[in-house]
Specification:
Largest sheet: 10 strands, mixed
Radius of gyration: 22 Å
CATH class of the largest domain: Alpha Beta
Number of helices: 9
CATH architecture of the largest domain: 3-Layer(aba) Sandwich
CATH topology of the largest domain: D-Maltodextrin-Binding Protein, domain 2
Structural class: alpha/beta
Distance between the termini: 56 Å
Oligomer: single chain
Number of strands: 15
CATH superfamily of the largest domain: Periplasmic binding protein-like II
Strand content: 25-35%
Number of domains: 2
């Protein structure tokens, strides 16, 4: 595969957290930097294009530390496509209050409309209530779309909530940084594709690297205590599970798959042994991927701007 002709789909448009995550994961996996980034309107579009071979990889959000799992991503990976997970990046989501530069000296209390994606608005309720008490809230399809709207309507008293990248892209002024209600706000993004990336990794001080193996387990019908037996296969091997989640099989009410994340990459003995033991119980196991995970080293000294009174 020629890297220069490679394409990576991500949840667009440009200037969103998904694009920030994609640029982030390119740092420890440098060959991805040569690819063309293709913004898509939906998570389903990203995964479908990857499945059909229209793009080589897709980067999609899978979980937020405040809002929980992104069910559409999980359901597409389970039911619609069969593409392995090749990597993960956890990005700290930090929201910024963005205004048109011509309005940078106006007090926030005069803002008439706050624009953003519904999740960003949900994560900044306290800021909106305390700083823009008279504003209407208007939801947009993305944080980038909100920033673009503010840039194109200087005559209106607007404020967009979004990432720093969206403000830069559309030439907006940052009135206040880190306005999210919870500072520990992370989103995990998965890199999906048929080509493994582990041979192309570079070590860098900027990134904390760990490993993960994700499996999908279907329990046998009428087997009391099956889930307990599954979990004990990991427990006695001292394999740490970082997540366990149930999703409906869509076959009948009360029938579930379990997505299990094991806190290490595939090895020669422990993980295969646990999977074999689970299969011996009569469970079906599908490997979703074994992959490196990255998280940036965040400094606590980032400047926080204070708003004009």
């Amino acid at each position: 595969m020629s890297h220069s002709h490679m394409q990576i789909a991500y949840l667009g448009p440009a200037g969103t957290y998904s694009e920030e995550a994609l640029r982030g994961i390119c740092q420890p996996i440098p060959f991805l930097q040569e690819a063309r980034f293709v913004a898509k309107a939906t998570i389903a579009d990203c995964l479908l294009d990857c499945s059909l071979g229209a793009v080589d990889y897709a980067l999609v959000p899978v979980e937020n530390s405040i809002e929980g799992s992104v069910n559409v991503t999980l359901d597409w990976l389970i039911h619609q496509v069969d593409i392995p997970i090749q990597g993960e990046i956890a990005l700290m989501i930090s929201h910024h209050a963005l205004v048109h530069p011509s309005r940078k000296d106006e007090p926030l209390s005069e803002v008439e409309t706050v624009l953003s994606h519904p999740q960003a608005i949900a994560q900044c309720h306290h800021f909106i209530r305390s700083h823009c008490p008279n504003a209407q809230v208007s939801t947009m399809r993305s944080t980038a779309e909100a920033a673009e709207y503010v840039a194109n309507h200087p005559e209106e008293k607007l404020l967009a909530i979004g990432p720093h990248a969206a403000g830069e892209k559309y030439g907006l002024h940052t009135v206040l940084s880190h306005i999210e209600d919870h500072s520990n706000n992370y989103t995990r993004f998965l890199l999906i594709g048929h080509q493994p990336v582990t041979d192309f990794l570079v070590e860098t001080d900027k990134w904390l690297r760990s490993g993960k193996t994700s499996i999908l387990v279907t329990l046998p019908e009428d087997f009391p205590g099956a889930l307990h037996q599954v979990l004990s296969a990991f427990a006695w091997r001292k394999l740490n599970l970082t997540r366990i989640e149930s999703r409906p099989t869509k076959k009948k009410l009360g029938s579930y798959f379990f997505i299990i994340d094991i806190g290490q990459e595939m090895d020669d003995t422990l993980v295969p042994g646990a999977i074999s033991e689970i299969e011996a119980l009569g469970c079906q196991v599908r490997l979703l991927g074994s992959y490196p995970c990255f998280m940036p080293h965040y400094s606590k000294s980032e400047p926080v701007l204070t708003p004009k009174a």
